[in-house]
Amino acid sequence: MSSHAVDRLVLIPDEIDLARSPLAGHLDAETYVLGAFNPALTMLPNGNLLMMVRIAEALRTPIRDGHVHAIRWNAGGYRLDAWPLETVNTADPRKFSIPGGGWDIMALTSLSWLLPVELTPDGLEVVAIHYDRAIAPGHSVQCYGVEDARISRVDGRYLMTTCSVSPERHSTTLYTSDDAVDWQFEGIVLDHQNKDMLIFEGLIDDRYWAQTRPLGALYFAYPPGSQWRAGPSINLATSPDALHWKPHLSPGIRPHAGTVATARMGGGAPPILTPDGWLTLWHGVEPKEIVGIYRTYWSLLDRDDPTRILRTDHQPLLEPAPALTAPIEHQMYVRDVVFTTGIVDAGDHYVVASGEADLACRITHIPKTAFRSD
Questions:
Q1: Mean of the per-residue pLDDT values for the chain?
Q2: Distance of CA 371 to CAs 105, 157, 173, 355, Å?
Q3: How far is Cα 70 from Cα 33, in angstroms, rounded to an integer?
Q4: pLDDT per position as a tens digit, 150-161
Q5: How do residues 286-331 score in pLDDT, each as one tens digit?
Q6: N or C: which end of the chain has fewer CB within 10 A?
Q7: How many CB atoms lie within 10 A of CB 135?
């Protein structure tokens, strides 16, 4: 059970109207909402909050007629690609793998798009769902979907990073806006597999900073006895304009050898500036079965040099909450996952947005006292 006074689901799959989906009318197949989750969070000029929610729209029956099907955007529309069952592995209902290429190749039985959902200032009630402002694939680099937005507000301008998925590349793309309503596509900003690019909500020495998390299949070992564990880590990059990024030489947040909760890790909410430094929320994963246990942790970074970690806590800030998803138990397909993706300052507390179980949107109010040193 959560220790936070306010902790609830504010959006679940059944509340999404697929008749207003960007895919509606394009496919000769029934779809459903596999998940409405991993919401970016920001404050609108009118004081309300905005979640940019990832909608994973999946085929109800991906396997039929001896084939498994994938959804793909193509030249302004959507189509189904059929793969003979004998050529693929369909053990995971969300995707299928295509063996024999010498490296991992997969395709999805769902396609993700982004849905703006306006909330009250406390983040607890839905004001409006803006289907007319949905962000869907519009370029070949996004043909398998647009995933996991993060929104930062820097000098009055909104910057939204997204993960764009295609056979061409698994890249980070950027959208910008003056009001968080009308978004302009700015193209690719990271040309490698990177699921968690988070732009700091403020400049440091007139430069943009970001956390990144590049992935690979090979990691070199730290020496015996090191406090660090080899594997994915949260790196840093800088930019003069938020479009052209250079990796920073010094490391960012690395997995600690002393805890299995950072066997895999990555950025969560965009870092925000506090009187004590940059507050960053990130996820650490404890190995368990296929997916693992995702929890949210926090660190405080130096305001002038974010490579300096001032404080961190190995005790989780947020745990997966089965009690919250109990009413939608029949829709569960993964467990033990809370994936934090947004934070807004609300005075004496923070409003924190997370994806719960890759299924729904969770809002938690966390008092600022939770981040003070003893």
A1: 95
A2: 41, 27, 31, 21
A3: 15
A4: 999 999 999 999
A5: 999 889 999 999 999 999 999 999 999 999 999 999 999 999 999 9
A6: C
A7: 19
Contact yes or no for 229/255 (Cβ under 8 A): yes
Mean pLDDT of 117-137: 98
Contact 277, 242 (CB under 8 A): no
| One-letter amino acid for residue 352 of the chain | V
298: which 2 tokens?
Answer: 């926090």
Which tokens sit at 31? 């779809």
Q: What is the DSSP letter of 199?
A: E
- Alpha-carbon dihedral angle through residues 96, 54, 12, 57, given to the nearest 10 degrees: -40
Joined tokens for residue 47: 């004081």
- Phi first, then psi: give them for residue 15, nearest 5 degrees: -90, 0
Query: What's the token pair of residue 263?
Result: 């066997």
Tokens encoding 35: 């998940």
Q: Give all domains of the chain, ordered by start, each with its CATH number.
A: 6-371 (2.115.10.20)
Of 322, 321, 314, residue with least CA distance to 364:
321
- Chain segment 278-287, per-residue pLDDT in tens: 999 999 999 9
Contact 310, 333 (CB under 8 A): no
Model pLDDT, residue 1: 43
